[in-house]
Amino acid sequence: MLCCMPGVAFVPALLVSWSSAAFIISYVIAVLAGHIEPFVPYISDTGTKPPESGVFGFMINISALLAAITMYIRYLLIEKQNETSHFVRSSCNMFTLCIGLMGCTGMGIVATFQELAVPSVHDIGALVAFGSGVVYITLQSVISYKSCPRWNTYFVCHIRMAISAISCIAFIPMIVFASKISMTKIDWTPGEKDYTYHFISAICEWTVAFGFIFFFLTFIRDFQRFSLRISTEIHED
Question: Does the reported pTM lie above 0.70?
Answer without folding.
Answer: yes
